[in-house]
Design goal:
- About 5% of the residues have low confidence.
- This protein has a six-stranded mixed β-sheet with strand order 5-2-1-6-7-8, covered by helices on one side. Strands 3-4 form a two-stranded parallel sheet.
- Helix 1 runs antiparallel to helix 4.
- About 20% of the residues lie in helices and about 30% in strands.
- A hairpin with a 4-residue loop joins strand 7 and strand 8.
- The protein has one domain.
- The chain has about 160 residues and is of the alpha/beta class.
- The radius of gyration is 15 Å and the shape is globular.
Length: about 160
C-alpha cells in the first residue's frame, strides 16, 4: 500500500501560521493528492529540490514566451505571483497518468498520511510545512535547504 499525501499551495499571508495550513484548505490555490510515495524522505525532498530552483516575483521583464522557452539548467525558474507558482507546480509534478491528482479542496484529512503545505510569497523564499495526520502533529516547518538536510538520504 502506498503512502498517500495531500499538497496544498497557500499564499503566505498575515495571520496564518506555517503550522496551520493543513486546517485551512479553503485558502489553497491547489490541493493535490499523491496516491503513493508521499512520505517525507521522498516527497519533501522532491519538493525542496524544486523549491530551491524557483523564485516568486510580481514582474515580468522581457517576453514571457521567450523566458519559458529558455532551457538553461543553471537558470533559476521564475513564477510571476503565487498563482503562476501553483500552475508551475502542477506542470512539474503531473507528468504521467495516475498517482498525482487534483482533489477538491476540503478539510477532510483522515484518508492521507501527510499533508504538505507550500507557502509562496513574492520576493521571499517559499516555506514548506509537513503535517503527519496519524500523530496529529506538524513534523516539519522550514525552508527547502532545511528539508533537504532533514530528509534527503545520504547516498555516498
Amino acid at each position: 500500500m502506498g503512502t498517500r499525501s495531500l499538497t496544498r499551495i497557500i499564499p503566505r499571508q498575515e495571520g496564518l501560521s506555517y503550522s496551520d495550513g493543513h486546517t485551512r484548505g479553503e485558502l489553497a490555490l491547489v490541493n493535490a493528492y499523491q496516491q503513493y510515495d508521499g512520505y517525507p524522505e521522498y516527497m519533501a525532498v522532491q519538493y525542496a529540490e524544486w523549491l530551491e530552483g524557483i523564485s516568486v516575483g510580481n514582474v515580468l521583464s522581457g517576453e514571457p514566451r521567450l523566458l519559458s522557452q529558455k532551457r538553461d539548467p543553471m537558470m533559476h525558474a521564475y513564477a510571476n505571483t503565487a498563482g503562476c507558482f501553483a500552475a508551475q507546480f502542477v506542470a512539474k509534478f503531473k507528468d504521467t497518468p495516475g498517482n498525482f491528482y487534483l482533489h477538491k479542496i476540503d478539510n477532510e484529512l483522515g484518508w492521507v498520511e501527510y499533508i504538505y503545505t507550500l507557502y509562496p510569497k513574492v520576493g521571499h523564499e517559499t516555506y514548506m510545512s509537513i503535517y503527519h495526520v496519524a500523530s496529529r502533529s506538524v513534523v516539519f516547518v522550514g525552508k527547502p535547504a532545511k528539508a533537504l538536510e532533514k530528509y534527503k538520504i545520504n547516498t555516498k
